[in-house]
Amino acid sequence: MAAARDAFLDQGYAATSMSAVTDRLGCSKATMWSHFSSKEELFAAVIDDLVDTFSSDIDEVLTSQTFSLPAMRRACLRFLECLMSEPSIRLFRLVLSEGSRFPEINEMFYQRGPAKVRRGIRAFYATRFCDADADMLTQVATSALTGFRSDILLRPEKPGPNESETFVDNLINLIDWDSLIPRADD
User: Where's the DNA-binding part (predicted)?
Assistant: First the structure.
């Protein structure tokens, strides 16, 4: 997986072939083909591997948690930390740069990555709020945090360590928590 991940992230989707990955590994093409029937399948496995690492880092904060503002703050900060990891940034750039030529990688990435993470975040909000509010909070938080990441990536000078905390605190303070509807079983 590491060889395939590095090949896709270094060279891009279009320029990476199954042969290039086998060359990096020093294994036979027959061995590679016995594990993966296509480049798309290999790319899906790479995405799954990266997303599993990303998800486990976020799940560590969300698992067995019911909603609270401190838990939300911790989850948002962890989410930003994961978004700003080098593999996450490289995969994001790869999907953005090659997704228009290869729409299947957009779909594959979204279903295996962002959609999976959003389900976990939504489940966290659903521990306290009604379904509609859990959906809205998931959309607002993930959009704000991914937008903040995009802003950071475009800046010529990277922000200091406290800027992420300030952003998350401002996001939490902007939400009118009193207007949200608690779950019926609360």
Answer: 17-36
Q: Supply the pTM of this predicted model.
A: 0.83
Range of the domain at 79: 48-179
**Mind listing the pLDDT tens digit for each residue in 46-80?**
888 887 877 777 777 777 788 999 999 999 999 99
CA 118 centroid distance within chain = 9
**CATH number of residue 169's parent domain:** 1.10.357.10
Q: How many CB atoms lie within 10 A of CB 36?
A: 16
Asked, for residue 108, whether it belongs to a domain, the answer is yes
- The number of C-alpha atoms within 13 Å of 26 and in the hemisphere containing its C-beta is 0
**Alpha-helical regions (H) of 14-68:** 18-25, 29-35, 39-62
Find out whether 120 and 64 touch, Cβ atoms under 8 Å.
no
Domain assignment present for 27: no
Cα–Cα distance, 130 to 65 (Å, whole number): 16
